[in-house]
Amino acid sequence: MQEFTTVGKRSLYRNPASILSSVPSPPRAGIIVVVIPPNAQTHEILFVVQGDSASLYDTPTGCGNFGFPKGHKSKSDKSMIHCALRECYEETGLKFSEDDLLKHPHTQRPVSISFMSNRMYIVRLDVKPSVSIDGVEIVNYEWLSINDALQKQMSSFTMKILSIFMRQIINHRWLPITIGEPHICAVDALIKSAKKAKS
């Protein structure tokens, strides 16, 4: 379906996807759920797989992508934290509170990963919880290590968040996860590759 649009004296047919891409997208917030068993050297992160029920600001190209539970901030959300907790619950059935979020050791404020106007928070658990998805917006989920996640199809947004997440873990040692420089370089290479594909 195309839409007839007039620009100056010229008439153009525009694809709805291109029209929506010019609409400013509300900020997104979400939760990175990390499971680290006690006294273990392993970790697993919850990734959800996006379905083809794209929202107003998403495109069908996101279908099949692995990402974190997240969503756009709505008018009913009192804060970005509220948005993140709500979206995580809606997409995974995992109900967290602000008290569950990983805190800075000195300020006791929730740790967040910021990218443009988007914000991701972190929840650390000892055991994997039961996840419930709707099968429409989210069609699947997997618990993956960072190394395994790099083998999956991800959006450039998810890759950027993952890159910042890894760097902040190394710099601040928020979590007892060992991340090698090759992993960070691998994510950076994927981001560059995605940018070249778009250009």
What is the strand content? 15-25%
Multimerization state: single chain
Largest sheet: 7 strands, mixed
Could you report the average pLDDT, rounded to the nearest whole number? 80
Termini distance? 25 Å
In short:
The chain is an alpha+beta fold and 199 residues long.
Task: Give your account of this protein's structure.
- The chain is α+β, with helices and mostly antiparallel strands.
- The radius of gyration is 18 Å and the shape is globular.
- Strand 1 and strand 2 form a beta hairpin.
- Helices cover 29% and strands 25% of the residues.
- Strands 3, 4, 5, 6, 7, 8 and 9 form a seven-stranded mixed β-sheet that branches. Strands 1-2 form a two-stranded antiparallel sheet.
- Helix 4 packs antiparallel against helix 5.
- It has a single domain, classed as Nucleoside Triphosphate Pyrophosphohydrolase (Alpha-Beta Complex), CATH 3.90.79.10.
- The longest helix has 18 residues.
Primary descriptors:
199 residues; disordered N terminus; 7-stranded mixed beta sheet; Nucleoside Triphosphate Pyrophosphohydrolase; two-stranded antiparallel ribbon; 5 helices; alpha+beta
